Amino acid sequence: MEATLLGVLEAVGIKESASIQILRVARDALLKRFDELSLRERLEQRNEIPLDEINLDGLEEEIESERIRVKRENLLRLHERESRNHRGQPVFPARADLPTNSVTNLGSLVPSQNIRPEIIESSLQAEGVWLLPSSRNSSTRHTVSLTGDGQESQSLACTCRGFRSHHHCYHTINIARFLGIRRIVEEQI
After folding, report:
1. Counting Cβ atoms within 10 Å, is residue 144 exposed (0-12), middle (13-18) or buried (19+)?
2. Which of 74, 75, 153, 175 is close enough to 148 for a disulfide, judged by CB 3.0 to 4.6 Å?
3. In 3D, which of 140, 178, 182, 177 has the Cα closest to residue 161?
4. What pTM, to 2 d.p., does this model score?
């Protein structure tokens, strides 16, 4: 016969009908604790946690924040994929009233090489300053700087030879497209 908690309590004299109150209180406390531990063990075996241990404070805000984060990531992937699919065609319209190195006009150009968005994000050194590898030598780095306050007046500059010669390079074009896509996504959210 398998021993149970009730059987053990009965055997040691801690009965439900005990005349001493402390024995009845001890028996009830032991049975209650045993039930709690048994429930916890069963839930852990199923990889669940008891509902009373879940903190529901701020849950709605967390869900909304996560929903926005996922939507932003999906939109970014969609726009970046679309940007790559239009190779040879401008994705953003150029504006004659803005300087050649404005973010808008650089974003309208097609880069000779694509830089992946995660590389652009990881190369951000400070607000508006990126340190990107050279196309020929990965140990050589070029600094791309964003200047200007409003979206209309923002422009990019790079320390590479291509930018010095033509006022644009694949570094600045990729960053301008990256910033343009970010703006589109932020407007859609």
Report:
1. buried
2. 153
3. 140
4. 0.58
